[in-house]
Amino acid sequence: MSLQKELDLRDLASIGEELHGFAAQLYPICRSITGNGLRKTLQILQERIPMQTVEVPTGTPVFDWTVPKEWNIRDAYIRIPGGERIVDFQQNNLHVLNYSVPVHDTMPLDQLRPHLFSLPDHPNWIPYRTSYYKSNWGFCLSHNQLQALEDRDYEVCIDSTLEDGHLTYGEYYLPGRSIDEVLISCHSCHPSLANDNLSGLSVATFLADFLSGRDLRYSYRFVFVPGTIGAITWLARNRESIQHIRHGLVLSGIGDRGGFHYKKSRRGDVEIDRAARHVLKHCSESPEILDFSPYGYDERQYCSPGFNLPVGCLMRSVWGAFPEYHTSADNLDFIQPTQLAQSLRVLATIVDVLESNRRYQNLNPFCEPQLGKRNLYRLTGGGSIGTEINACLWVLNLSDGEHSLLDIAERSGLPFSAIRDASDRMCQAGLLSVSPEKENHKKSITRAAGAEADV
Amino acid sequence: MSLQKELDLRDLASIGEELHGFAAQLYPICRSITGNGLRKTLQILQERIPMQTVEVPTGTPVFDWTVPKEWNIRDAYIRIPGGERIVDFQQNNLHVLNYSVPVHDTMPLDQLRPHLFSLPDHPNWIPYRTSYYKSNWGFCLSHNQLQALEDRDYEVCIDSTLEDGHLTYGEYYLPGRSIDEVLISCHSCHPSLANDNLSGLSVATFLADFLSGRDLRYSYRFVFVPGTIGAITWLARNRESIQHIRHGLVLSGIGDRGGFHYKKSRRGDVEIDRAARHVLKHCSESPEILDFSPYGYDERQYCSPGFNLPVGCLMRSVWGAFPEYHTSADNLDFIQPTQLAQSLRVLATIVDVLESNRRYQNLNPFCEPQLGKRNLYRLTGGGSIGTEINACLWVLNLSDGEHSLLDIAERSGLPFSAIRDASDRMCQAGLLSVSPEKENHKKSITRAAGAEADV
Amino acid sequence: MSLQKELDLRDLASIGEELHGFAAQLYPICRSITGNGLRKTLQILQERIPMQTVEVPTGTPVFDWTVPKEWNIRDAYIRIPGGERIVDFQQNNLHVLNYSVPVHDTMPLDQLRPHLFSLPDHPNWIPYRTSYYKSNWGFCLSHNQLQALEDRDYEVCIDSTLEDGHLTYGEYYLPGRSIDEVLISCHSCHPSLANDNLSGLSVATFLADFLSGRDLRYSYRFVFVPGTIGAITWLARNRESIQHIRHGLVLSGIGDRGGFHYKKSRRGDVEIDRAARHVLKHCSESPEILDFSPYGYDERQYCSPGFNLPVGCLMRSVWGAFPEYHTSADNLDFIQPTQLAQSLRVLATIVDVLESNRRYQNLNPFCEPQLGKRNLYRLTGGGSIGTEINACLWVLNLSDGEHSLLDIAERSGLPFSAIRDASDRMCQAGLLSVSPEKENHKKSITRAAGAEADV
């Protein structure tokens, strides 16, 4: 049975609630690109999937970058000296400029102001800002809060540490029949932001759990990495094994009410690009397919020219294109159980396509075989045929060893599942056999490996 | 002179009447995929063209199929025992389920009902239904007739035979200068249905007659075969010679008032696909070009993956897409003399393209040749040039041995006839010569022949 | 600094006035495909650029053509014998059929009428008509003038000479670092017609002057030739050197108020086609890109199949598509200083693209390089990035030695200048290096040269 059908037989509504609950469990943690918030997040994921975590020491060179010092934070606030907290990290971890160096001082508003970030267009929301690679400290607050500040002295405190430590990432490998693998990558560094990217973390974790223990064609590798530096670190440590990546997806922002967006890989026409487009067309309303661009999530690294991996990015609303992006309004109300569950279903359907997409050979290629004598055709002629017979005719006609099932689905306009079911029926009837797989490995990897010495 | 011009010099209106009269002569005959109705139909065609008929014995294996028993019918009816006929084969041969086994019995309505076919949405029309490969008997009747039947006993009689005999088809071969050939195929098995396919039979017969006795570039092969099993039988008996098919057309449903539809070959971009599209664009209103699909007429067999022949299908209204399809409303009023004549003209124009489409070489390829000194240009400069000179400039510019006249017609937007006439003028002026023909044979046939042993 | 930026720092309005003044200086001269009007025109151009002129004797064979006799004219008129001039060449040189043989006679209106040309649809305008290759004489006059002629005798006089002499053309070669060259070609044979083609002559002359004395990647060759016969003569005399033409533009009709039109080369996708399309898209409103056709200006000759040069044609309004075309209404009011200056700017921007378009190699192809540590990235994360960083990311991602800067500009949707500036920044940062140039010479020239012997 296909994964999609299996999911449909379960209660999608309760799966959605469970996904949302999982995201809610992760929501309060103050994550960053290193540190204990990130570690705790991965521990919670490990309660569902037997994932490994990797600790990479500060100072490790990773391509053009270096693993930074580890950041941890206990508390942060602004207050009138001796008074109550005006801005309080304990209420919302977005209040602190992520990766702020420690500070404890009293200063007038004029001196404090360059360290304050707000959103004049959304005066009730707190922005999310970071300063990973430039030593700085700061507070993010609502514009209303900022404007209410009187011109006087304030006590500012950021009780953080920036010390030699580790960058932590999680990796879960599900071996399949082939060493060729499917990569699913999520960034796991954002603090209390629900769509970006607790939605991705939750759905990927549930998908990993759903795939566990199955007899799979491909191996599946789930990586949960801090954005940019984490993906770069993972790539630097896995230059040998990435040659096995046949298909890949970056997941982010898949819990909001927006329609699906799929951003194509740099290559633009690889199988994951076509599978994602096909599934979204048949399983969702008004999906949009975006061309690759070198800005976005970690597909930037996977699709850098030296790797050029077949990795696309699945989203609902696109980063930067919705007002709640990188603000406190990207909260648990912004993501919905129904949307989370549908995203899981779409992913399962994409996996269905990847698992079943093959080329077949029609064993009776001269004229149509007589389906009727095999009880595979209607009995009375003259009327119209249905989708099942139509799918069989398409499979027979195009199964010449050149066309894959996905090719046939696209050319016929029928959903992949109908084409796959027809190919199953034709195989059972002895009319079709699997073609030997074409050597499809990414030559660019070999080229990349050769080029490495020059860098 | 082109065939199109020659037709235009005749009286197209009277040709249309003659075509309609020919269809009317064929209309009453009860055809099927075998039997005397089919034989009589081919005999009437032979009055116009010296066609051969071939009789293939029952039981002959043809690929995955077997030539069935021969079906003949003398009479059929339903009546109240001893009363008048309520449903009468003598009034309309659609009343009998085609290929019904013999039956003579009296039975209550309940027992009869599973053998009755009607069309609730069109209560006055009789459907056309068949049961070639499943032993059954039945009657087709209007829904009004069905609903008027009282709950009582009926005498049912189908005086048919299903015995060892033959499948009959007709074939007319017109040799040309080349053994490369153009295939024109029509199904000839439908009983009293005018558009589907007496229109195809009539127009093909007239085209064959019109081409007879001419000096032709290609050889032309007209085949009149029962649908599916007939095309399969013909292909099975002609596996050697089909390698000569350079272009092919299945003709069906070309007499009704609908606009033209051309369904492309499985390959989708062969010369017949481009020629048909070009001619329809310039010679008809709002033609539609359809992608290949494995459902339809006998292009299903010609375009099966083992053959993959360059055969498209020319229609007006598309099978199954008009309400009269496979009903008694597809009668002689449904097809029109004007439409039949225009279909003949379109076919003649397609043949014009195939006959004249070649590559030429500009013998003065450096700069334009001076047309003026050859009296091929306007005398006074400064104003605009006309289509004739424009066509000459296009022919000269693109005749580099790579572009065919059809390429030039498509790129220039001019009709093929204007481009062909310009190439004639340029040849006469010594400015152009024919390029050697490119080897264009279908490699897939060789592959198919090699693959046959495995089947 | 780019040529475009340099122009923008000057006063474009005054450049426009200067261009218009230059056209006004050329306007009164009676040019033709040979003769003193053409010579005088080239002399005026030589006051601005150190151009060579070439004199080719009458009778010289040039491919399929022959250099014609030289035509000169002193005077021409129609008058009532002994009365005032009714039609007077001194008032407008369009009044004489260009290349008229001499005539001095008195004749009745009936005999004169076949020699008179007018425009009934524009009764105040004088048409421009020629008779280069058919011996004839005639007068062009407004339709109002024609209709006012009484039925009586007229004295007609055309004081012209058609004698052995020369065809004159101008050529200005600006050597660059490479012998590969950019061809700019204008026809220079039209008498008092401002847009067609004093606009082209003026803008090309100013561009040549603007490029003079610079360190250029390509060599630039400006040719000012009489239409058709002049381009043919130039090609016949330069068959060796045209192999160096990498890009070319024919300029005509670039002074009127119409939007830009670029007509693609016969090849349709060469670099000049893409550069012109890109620049027009980013630097002008509603530009239109036209497919190649073998009618138009001298691109007809450059793109004849034996040469097939990468030469397109830049226009505003298209020949024959505006009512003033080839009439006295194509006068100095019809062209505008603003439009002439903008055309010069567009050309300079196209030259900018050609000069800078190269392929680069990302020297850190594995993952993104860390722009932040090189002060090439924003300091605080979480918000949006601007065009500058975006352009850098595109350049880094696609600089794999395969994509040119123009490829990157087109794929990113950013203007070429932003991409070029980004590539400069990345080179300075040591992140990018120039790829070796691909061998890009026109194989067709070699083929053409080989084919010549057969003609």
Question: What can be said about this structure in brief?
Answer:
The structure is a homotrimer of 455-residue chains. Chain A is α/β, with parallel strands linked by helices.
Keyword list:
homotrimer, alpha/beta, 8-stranded mixed beta sheet, 14 helices, disordered C terminus
Percent of residues in helices of chain A comes to 25-40%
Shape of chain A: elongated
Backbone structural class of chain A: alpha/beta
N- to C-terminal separation of chain A? 48 Å
Mean pLDDT of chain A: 94
Radius of gyration of chain A: 26 Å
Number of strands of chain A: 19
Q: Main beta sheet of chain A, described?
A: 8 strands, mixed
User: How would you write the strand order of the largest sheet of chain A?
Assistant: 1-10-12-11-13-16-14-15
What is the assembly state of the chains in this entry?
homotrimer
Number of helices of chain A: 14
The amount of beta strand of chain A, in percent, is 15-25%
Low-confidence stretches of chain A: 440-455
Largest interface, Cβ cutoff 8 Å: A-B, 28 and 43 residues
Blueprint (SSEs and pairs):
Three copies of one chain form a homotrimer.
Chain A: H1 3-9, H2 12-26, H3 36-46, E1 52-57, E2 61-62, E3 65-66, E4 70-79, E5 85-88, E6 103-108, H4 109-112, E7 116-117, E8 139-140, H5 143-148, E9 153-163, E10 166-174, E11 181-187, H6 194-211, E12 219-225, H7 229-237, E13 245-251, E14 261-263, H8 271-283, E15 288-290, H9 299-302, E16 311-315, H10 337-356, E17 359-362, H11 387-398, E18 400-404, H12 405-412, H13 416-428, E19 432-434, H14 443-452
Parallel strand pairs in A: 7-8, 11-12, 11-13, 13-16, 14-15
Antiparallel strand pairs in A: 1-10, 2-3, 4-5, 4-9, 6-9, 10-12, 14-16, 17-18, 17-19
Helix pairs in contact in A: 1-10, 2-6, 2-10, 6-10, 8-10, 11-13, 12-13
